[in-house]
Write a structure and sequence with these properties.
Shape: globular
Helix content: 40-55%
Strand content: 5-15%
Radius of gyration: 18 Å
Strand order of the largest sheet: 2-1-6-5-3-4
Number of strands: 6
Distance between the termini: 22 Å
Amino acid sequence: MKEMMFRLKYLEVVDSKKALARLPEGKLLINTINAHSYNVARRDPHFAEALMRGDALIPDGMSIVKACRWIGAKSHPQERIAGYDLFEWEMERLNRKGGTVMFMGSTERTLALDVEQAAKVYPNLKVVTYSPPYKPVFSDEDNRAIISAINKAQPDLLWIGMTAPKQEKWTYEHWDELNINCHVGTIGAVFDFFAGTVERAPIWWQEHGLEWCYRLLKEPRRMWRRYIIGNTVFLWYMLGEKMKG
């Protein structure tokens, strides 16, 4: 895939939270996109392909919503749909009828807290977890073990949380090896938010599209490059898309 093919203007993005109800049943790959992941995808053709070839793309950031309007994009999302919004919607939907949800990613400690929290909030769900090795690149043995664990669990809902772009690229690369029939969401930090190991921004910040700013204030050393430099780069990319018609 050529880098020039990845443009926000041409991406199909889910337009609202209500539209989540129209996602078809069965095996479905759901990814999210924000300014940071867009920037990374412009430099990483494999990541770009994973985002473009998924079944649904969620606008996880007001920057995406506003940029789509400004550049006259193919999609016109009405609102931001955070990864946590997707998580809550899918979990509540499955909880109403009962089933098995699997969390693949993160640490054993975080996963244990996720299991405890799920038992309180979603009592009709059986929770299965798998914590992969903490390394930049998985070995063939690692990949086989992960795939085997997922296929053995046969979940009714699968969450992959290994941070972008690793989670999207891994899921896309091994998609055909996953013998499952459910929605699969790549949701990164949601594992930590749900476990309570990382504090999410208060509602006011979320509603005003400032969750990124809250995270920057909480973790300036870790987040300054992503948000200060990253947002500037994203604006430059959007100006380019705007100028090209």
